[in-house]
Amino acid sequence: MMLYDCSTAPSPRRVRIFLAEKGLTLPTVQVDLRGGEQFTPAFRAMNPGCTVPVLALDSGAAISDIIAICRYIEELHPEPALMGRDAEERALIECWVRRIEWDGIYAIQEAFRNSMPGLEHRALPGPLPLEQIPALAERGRLRARHFLAWLDTRLADHAFVGGAAFTIADISAMVTVDFAARAKLDPPEHLRHLRRWHQDVSSRPSAKA
Questions:
Q1: Sign of the CA dihedral running 143, 149, 155, 160
Q2: What is the pLDDT at residue 76?
Q3: 29: part of which helix (H) or strand (E)?
Q4: How far apart are the C-alpha atoms of 158 and 37, rounded to whole Å?
Q5: Percentage of the chain with pLDDT > 70?
Q6: For the sheet containing 28-30, what is the strand order?
Q7: Domains in the chain, start-ordered, CATH in brackets?
Q8: Closest alpha carbon to 79 in 140, 141, 22, 136
Q9: What count of other Cβ atoms lies within 10 Å of the Cβ of residue 132?
Q10: Which residues pair with 29 in a beta bridge?
């Protein structure tokens, strides 16, 4: 196996943290996103979507979805369980992850990529040359603030996003909150449950991955 990564991008960090929690290391290739390496013919042949992470398997197949990569790793290395131990847990954790992605990651991405200098023709990840839309940046900021407030409410009565144990939902949410800070959308001081949780999960050794 070979993991195609970019140490400065938020998306592959979710996989790196997942691997660190499992105590696993994989051979890794750093992809120069800033230099456009993801658009080269060699990379496109592996992942036409031109995004990282990608897990290239020994069979020749390539997995280019974060959760699919984590699912594959979880099947091979089930302990510690980070995606649930039974049907109910797995479904609920998946539900939280999808909500974090749709309401959190994509909202912040909308704000970040539609306002960040240097991304004028790259408003979405991938091969299409899409122009920034300032109104989408503002909408993304509104959505992101709503998401952070929702997450604070969820964490008022739960130690972790998915319940009593640290899971892929916490990994996804932590990376999202850190990405929000890069987009100048830090959680407000009054979201104390979110800030408590973020301090706790950020102190885990895997958070440095």
A1: positive
A2: 98
A3: strand 28-30
A4: 41
A5: 100
A6: 28-30, 2-5, 54-56, 62-63
A7: 2-76 (3.40.30.10), 87-208 (1.20.1050.10)
A8: 22
A9: 17
A10: 4
Residues composing the chain: 209
Q: What is the DSSP letter of 5?
A: E
Could you tell me where the DSSP H helices lie in the chain? 10-22, 41-46, 66-76, 87-99, 106-113, 134-155, 168-182, 192-202
CA dihedral 206, 105, 108, 106 (to 10 degrees): 160
Place of tokens 């979201």: 191
Tally Cβ neighbours within 10 Å of residue 31: 24
Q: What is the mean pLDDT of residues 142-161?
A: 98
- Convert the pLDDT of each residue in 62-97 to its tens digit: 999 999 999 999 999 999 999 999 999 999 999 999
Query: What are 165's two structure tokens?
Result: 């144990």
Q: How far apart are CA 175 and CA 187, in angstroms?
A: 13
Is 0.90 surpassed by the pTM of this model? yes
Q: Give me the phi and psi of 137, to 5 degrees please.
A: -65, -45
- Max CA-CA distance within the chain? 50
Three-state DSSP class for residue 27: coil
CA dist list (Å): 97 to 128, 132, 169:
26, 27, 5
pLDDT of res. 117: 93
